[in-house]
Amino acid sequence: MGKGKKFTVAIEHNILDIKQKIVAVLVISVMFALVFTTLNLNPHAGNAATSNVLLNLAAGTLSIESTGTVDLGSTGAGSSTNVSLNNLMVNVKDFAGDGLNWAATVYSTNFVNGAGGTLIIPNTRFQVRPNEGTVYNAGSSSCSTTATGSECGLSSACALFNGDTAATGECRLNAVNLNLQVLTTDPTADYNATLTLSVSAT
What is the dihedral of CA 24, 25, 30, 33, to 10 degrees? Predict the structure, then answer.
């Protein structure tokens, strides 16, 4: 075989060898691509993530407070008069978080001369005048839309003041006027009555 023919065969052999190597490289590249896709090893495939964020906002309470003792003072027996005092304070704390309105009411027992007493001034002559009081915010409350009740006899539940959904936090009704009618026929004694205040969601 001549040198020219041997050279041609060698070139063809080298070309075939290169083609085989190119095919092998392509096969390996495809296999790696399949492996990366299957195993999600692509470095750009994990550039997003999600987190589930939880919060428990626990319900609070709706409560009411008032002046512990209200002293109407002293008046002389044997004459008809109205005893009036405007120092009852009512405080509503709305931390319930329920988004509801609320209403505060008050009721009084009869005036009696102590525990087991038999002398009575009836609660039909005892009045509350919440409309003469002043509503204001305590702290960061929203009491601007709070409405007060009108003059009411305390023999039944009387409206003190109401709050809408914006009246949250601590709302105070200050300087509420209490008025008791004393008659000439009322016996001399030391009397006391109990005011019961309540607040409820509406």
Answer: 140
